[in-house]
Design goal:
Blueprint (H helix, E strand, L loop, with lengths): L27 H9 L1 E7 L1 H4 L9 E7 L3 H4 L17 E5 L17 E7 H9 L3 H4 L9 E4 L1 H8 L9 H17 L9 H7 L3 H20 L10 H9 L5 H17 L12 H17 L1
Parallel strand pairs: 2-4
Antiparallel strand pairs: 1-2, 1-5, 3-4
Helix pairs in contact: 7-9, 7-11, 9-10, 9-11
């Protein structure tokens, strides 16, 4: 049985989001839903992992919001966007889209990338063991932008989402990052500058190893320590800076992959998450929001 985490504090921080954009998930209607129903907003990405390089990273944020009743019990949409009616699942905005080039631009230093999921979508992903969304439950207070009582209750019950289902998700994400790093697949982000400088994409390598390290911790304890503890953090940063040869980076990734796989014989987590509690939380918190 995974013990419950420490009690989360209320953080009455900003809920304002960047303005709308011509994108299916960045309409003004989606923006207003995300801001009005926001229960949690945190920093994610390299900044919260402790692996950021000064002056080289954008800021990534993730949030969770409750939806208006007409979007849950009815058929309301945040469209039309591009001629299509779009149901609300998230508000997703990159400030770099405002520069010439729009959606084709890649975020850089000073840019903000923010996604605010509906609580229903976020919980579906978290219950399935998605490593990216699970991070929101473990962000330290200094990296929390906004957290109300509903968000705090969710964080207090992080252990409800811990299950062995996460094993395949962490392994899948690790292998995807490694495949992009080695050129086995087409990378979602093109970083030829890193390849030219270091001989391989050091950012993909760092993320592959980080996912392995965090996956082993989660499957062992049901929690993810942020920022990444030492000595792993320093080694990850060294990989990011190109100080670690490709062969050594691949060996480190293979080692944590083996650890994740070996845990199949002695799982520390329950086989399934506590879906009954999550379902009750969604029901209660939506009713409270609609009646406020």
């Amino acid at each position: 049985m995974i013990p419950p985490p420490p009690r989360a504090t209320i953080v009455d921080g900003p809920r304002d989001l960047p303005g709308p954009f011509d994108h299916p998930h960045a309409s003004e209607a989606a923006r207003r839903i995300a801001m009005a129903g926001m229960i949690l907003r945190v920093q994610v990405g390299s900044g919260v992992h402790g692996t950021a390089i000064a002056g080289a990273d954008d800021r990534d944020e993730m949030g969770i919001c409750l939806e208006p009743a007409s979007f849950v019990t009815g058929l309301d949409t945040v469209g039309p966007v591009g001629g299509a009616q779009v149901p609300f699942e998230q508000f997703h905005r990159h400030t770099v889209w405002d520069a010439p080039g729009g959606l084709a631009n890649r975020s850089g230093p000073g840019d903000l990338d923010v996604v605010v999921y509906s609580a229903r979508k976020w919980t579906r992903l978290a219950l399935a063991g998605n490593p990216t969304v699970l991070l929101a439950l473990f962000v330290p207070d200094g990296d929390v932008v906004h957290r109300n009582a509903a968000g705090a209750e969710l964080v207090d019950n992080a252990h409800r989402f811990a299950s062995d289902l996460a094993r395949e998700r962490f392994l899948g994400y690790l292998r995807s990052q490694r495949a992009a790093m080695t050129g086995e697949t087409t990378a979602h982000t093109n970083r030829p500058d890193l390849v030219a400088l270091h001989g391989y994409d050091t950012k993909f390598a760092m993320h592959a190893l980080r996912l392995g390290v965090q996956g082993v911790e989660f499957l062992t304890t049901g929690r993810i320590t942020l920022p990444v503890p030492e000595p792993h953090r320093s080694f990850l940063r060294a990989i990011r800076r190109g100080e670690i040869p490709l062969t050594e980076a691949l060996a480190a990734i293979a080692d944590v992959e083996a650890q994740l796989t070996d845990h199949r014989n002695a799982p520390a987590l329950p086989p399934q998450p506590d879906r009954a509690w999550v379902n009750d939380w969604l029901h209660r918190r939506h009713l409270e929001y609609w009646q406020a």
